[in-house]
Design brief:
8-stranded antiparallel beta sheet, globular, Jelly Rolls
């Protein structure tokens, strides 16, 4: 999901993590097949992270070959393959999930669908799910209407809890919903915000418990808005809010929020099949406020899985600096023009967002933008689920443990902690992860009417 900072180039001698890739799909084929069979293949929720997160800013060799098939994807039903919202059953989960009704901040339950199955060796997931609705109606002036709203006391309804080890080699074990609740790793606080924590037991022998959740409902195209008050931060942490589609990388991956350790600038990245690229590496040409990191080729198979990423210019868009301003809002817009990511600090969230009537055309310059001219957003992306997770160490945070040079990381974590390696620090310093938590006000998915 991400491109590492240029400093990761220094680590090139260590090599890239091996990843298994998928053969290229085509939107027309996917839609035709779905209409005929009402099924699509959705990859295991953990697989993409294993591939996408390896040494991002390295300039990988151009392999030119198509991704190899991955045999551990999960199958789910798709109600509608066309741009819009779809519900699905995943083989990595055992869940009872209710669809969210249209609306804003106040939650209510919807009708239920059930999915069962088994997934990749990473494990299974369980949830009892229903997404919320609101009594507030979007303004008539906005073409965007809420189709999913996760907020308040029912925030965790409508999410599948991924269970098992971290595919990106992090020192965490993802746990199911009942275990997370009993361990106080998930909760709704007095402000009505969802909390997702990492275990802070002083010492652990191997891994710390953590939480990873994936929306049961899927979408093709749309507007995803996430309001967070706090995100995990500190040496050894690697949080992300992202989305991906079936048959990675054929269904595409969009990393909306991501970084490691003490970074202060968010990085957004996409990963695709061959044929998708940024039309320029120039921020002014792309019309973005961020900076392209790595190359312009977004194909996972041809970039050593790094994709093409953009680092935010705002030094309060990630980590401790983000938390210090009481967070803010991230928005990802996926339409015929391409894919855009916006960041709004708490003090400058557009009023149309708070009114549940978003007008993206008035939001100004996006942090990141992948134009349709270089990457057709409905050829290289489809049927996405939104995902939150927090891992510790892993390929990225561990890989840059001794490095500096990225905004926020003036001193390396090895220097700051006095511990030579990430794993030793994580296993023996539980109190250091008191700030390794998400506090989320809401996640909303919009579609045009």
């Amino acid at each position: 999901m991400h491109l590492f900072a240029p400093l990761v180039l220094l680590l090139a001698s260590t090599g890239l993590a091996e990843a298994s890739l998928l053969s290229r799909g085509h939107e027309t084929f996917v839609r035709a097949a779905t209409r005929a069979h009402k099924h699509a293949v959705k990859r295991s929720a953990g697989l993409a992270r294993d591939i996408r997160l390896t040494f991002r800013d390295m300039l990988a060799a151009d392999s030119q070959q198509q991704p190899a098939s991955i045999g551990n994807s999960r199958v789910f039903c798709v109600n509608s393959p066309a741009p819009g919202l779809a519900g699905g059953n995943g083989t990595n989960v055992v869940s009872t999930s209710a669809s969210a009704s249209v609306g804003g901040p106040t939650a209510s339950t919807g009708s239920h669908t059930t999915s069962t199955g088994t997934g990749k060796g990473a494990g299974t997931a369980t949830s009892t799910s229903s997404a919320g609705s609101s009594t507030a109606s979007p303004a008539a002036s906005s073409p965007w209407k809420i189709v999913q709203n996760y907020q308040g006391s029912t925030f965790f309804n409508g999410w599948d809890f991924f269970v098992g080890g971290d595919p990106t080699n992090g020192l965490v074990t993802y746990i199911d919903q009942p275990t997370a609740q009993s361990a106080n790793l998930t909760s709704i606080n007095s402000a009505g915000n969802a909390i997702m924590r990492v275990e802070t037991t002083p010492q652990v022998a191997n891994t710390r418990q953590s939480v990873r959740i994936t929306t049961h409902e899927t979408y093709t195209g749309g507007l995803v808005i996430m309001d967070s008050v706090h995100m995990p931060t500190g040496c050894g942490t690697w949080p992300a809010f992202w989305s991906n589609g079936p048959n990675w990388p054929a269904g595409g991956e969009i990393d909306i929020v991501e970084g490691v350790n003490d970074y202060t600038n968010n990085q957004a990245t996409i990963h695709t099949n061959p044929g998708c690229s940024l039309t320029s590496s120039s921020s002014s040409t792309l019309g973005i406020s961020g900076s392209v990191v790595g190359g312009t080729n977004c194909a996972a198979a041809q970039t050593g899985n790094q994709g093409c990423g953009v680092r935010a210019s705002q030094t309060n868009s990630f980590g401790a600096a983000f938390n210090a301003i009481n967070g803010g809002v991230y928005a990802m817009k996926w339409d015929d023009s391409g894919i855009s990511v916006f960041f709004f600090p708490r003090s400058s969230i557009p009023s149309d967002i708070t009114a549940n009537a978003p007008l993206p055309d008035g939001w100004g310059t996006p942090m990141a933008f992948w134009p349709a001219a270089g990457c057709n957003p409905f050829t290289f992306f489809n049927t996405h689920s939104a995902i939150f997770d927090t891992t510790l160490c892993g390929d990225w945070a561990n890989g840059v443990w001794g490095s500096t040079g990225v905004p926020g990381q003036d001193q390396s974590c090895a220097q700051l902690t006095g511990v030579a390696d990430c794993a030793t620090f994580v296993k023996n310093n539980g109190a250091s992860f008191a700030d390794a938590y998400w506090e989320v006000r809401y996640v909303q998915v919009y579609q045009t009417s």
